[in-house]
């Protein structure tokens, strides 16, 4: 069996041999080196830590991630949209009704919905979804947040002990984020989604701040962001392109669909950034993005390309056309602007 790093071992011939044997019995050829490192890490943790709390944390987190991957893996070819918002919103509130309508219209178009599983806006997201088209990532709290009654399939409810594993799954397993008015939790999820895109830790995605009729929630939030964060240089003005304020459900559906109209996905390979496309760009659009976005390049030009050798070997959408560039790995707000241009927005 081949290890990723020969140095990453226990250093005990017998234990390393047992790990290798277990990996041979448990992993595919593609995953054996990673499983070897996971098991080696677990043994190192057992040998190095006498703190039961440390082990309980790792144990619970690993179990939550494993189970989440199991639940989501059959649906990874279906695009999913997160609906965040207050657990305290009444079922007559404008944000509740707007979230319910958004969920209904998105699932009618084939999307799946992911919510936090609780009451309020989360309930509205599950309530509006077409039967069997929604997930609930519930968090176990001291005051016993229970899953709302509108989740059709109980097998799609995942109960988390930790916020950090729950938040990871929210981003990893979805393709768009919608945020309705809410409290600290909603702002936490929103700022994290934006930060992950801004720093390149998450792939570009639509982040929609849903402003119901009569609400000034996100308008006032935006006032703070512009007058404190942008004006004081804490963020770049281009970072505002990572998200959009949306005041109409049909506009939200259109925004999500348009984001993936031409743009398909992103990949970083051997120092290059690869944008996979659903259709080949025209020469006119290619010339435009080279003129308007030269500032985000570390060198060279944005060029059309077929699949890279690595992508072909891994079977990663080899039929799709590509754009390749030497992206500076810093200007992610501008990268979101580029994606909107290639989508014709």
Please characterize this protein's 3D structure.
With 345 residues, the chain is α/β, with parallel strands linked by helices. It has three domains: 1-48, no CATH class; 74-259, Rossmann fold (3-Layer(aba) Sandwich); 263-342. 44% of the residues lie in helices and 17% in strands. The protein contains twelve helices and eleven strands. A seven-stranded parallel β-sheet has the order 4-3-2-1-5-6-7, with helices on both faces. Helix 5 links the parallel strand 2 (112-115) and strand 3 (134-139). Helix 1 (13-26) crosses helix 2 (32-48) and helix 4 crosses helix 9 (249-259). The model has no long low-confidence stretch (mean pLDDT 95).
Distance between the ends: 50 Å
Overall number of structural domains: 3
How many strands, which pairing sense, and closed or not: the largest β-sheet? 7 strands, parallel
| Category from helices, strands and their pairing | alpha/beta
Uncertain stretches: none
Order of helices and strands: HHHEHEHEEHEHEHEHEEHEHEH
